[in-house]
Amino acid sequence: MSYKEDWDNHYRAGYNSGAGSYGKLAGFKAQTINEFIADHGIQTVLDIGCGDGNQLSLLNCQEYFGVDVSPTAVELCKKKFSSDPTKHFNLYMPNGENDLPECDLVLSLDVLYHIIPEEDFNQTLDDIFIHAKKGVILYTVLLDIGTKNQHIYTRNTIQYLENYPDWEIWKIIYQKYPKKSGADFLILKPCQR
Q1: What would the 3-class secondary structure string for the chain be?
Q2: 140: Cα separation from own chain's centroid
Q3: How far from the centroid of its chain's Cα atoms is residue 59's Cα?
Q4: pTM of this structure
Q5: Mean pLDDT of 3-31
Q6: What distance in Å separates the CA atoms of residue 108 and residue 125, rounded to the nearest whole number?
Q7: Residues whose CB falls within 8 Å of the CB of residue 182, separated by 6 or more in sequence, listed in order
Q8: 193 falls in which pLDDT band (50, 70, 90)?
Q9: How far is CA 12 from CA 27, 52, 112, 164, in A?
Q10: In the chain, % of residues over pLDDT 70
Q11: What does each C-alpha distance from 27 to 128, 140, 168 come to in angstroms?
């Protein structure tokens, strides 16, 4: 079973996006992202890996585009935000046909370390950086800590950033609750030339 099928089965069984999208961790993420949105005049946000939409409910953005590899998660979000015309959701297929908008900010929160195939990981990073104008916020495990199983596959994320020379690390914000998550924030902005 692929990681995409695994996640779709997860949502179809009635589970949510997990502890990272709820409680203290969700609050920590929302505070960091909302500060960046406010400080950098962000109007449009693309979220690659939107999950069940709970994290979105804490974000302050004018227009939001959420995509996910799980058709069930996409349908959950469409239903949850059906009365809000500023929220848009679509299926995301790495290495497939995707109609992704260019946005001020692109997010990928608790997603990258769940992508198992190398080809899908690289394509997802490409899509993140190609579609961002003002900023990229990655919330992930930054270094390869050796975890490699059917649900989590850690890589040296910082090393992969060498493939995007037009972007630079603006800030790293380390996990506020390290007993709850091994993910940290990596915030990037276009290089000033």
Answers
A1: CCHHHHHHHHHHCCCCCCHHHCHHHHHHHHHHHHHHHHHCCCCEEEEECCCCCCCHHHCCCCEEEEEECCHHHHHHHHHHCCCCCCEEEEECCCCCCCCCCCEEEEEEECCHHHCCCHHHHHHHHHHHHHCEEEEEEEEECCCCCCCECCCCECCCHHHHHHHCCCEEEEEEECCCCCCCCCCEEEEEEECCC
A2: 9
A3: 13
A4: 0.95
A5: 91
A6: 9
A7: 141, 145, 175
A8: low
A9: 26, 11, 21, 36
A10: 99
A11: 23, 16, 26
Average pLDDT of the chain, as a whole number: 94
Distances (CA, A) of 83 to 49, 80, 87, 88, 128: 21, 8, 9, 11, 27
**Per-residue model confidence as pLDDT tens digits over 100-140:** 999 999 999 999 999 999 999 999 999 999 999 999 999 99
Show the tokens assigned to 83: 């009365």
CA angle 42, 43, 44 (to 5 degrees): 105
pLDDT at 18: 85
Beta bridge partners of 138: 108, 186
- Nearest partner of 11 among 43, 50, 42, judged by Cα: 50
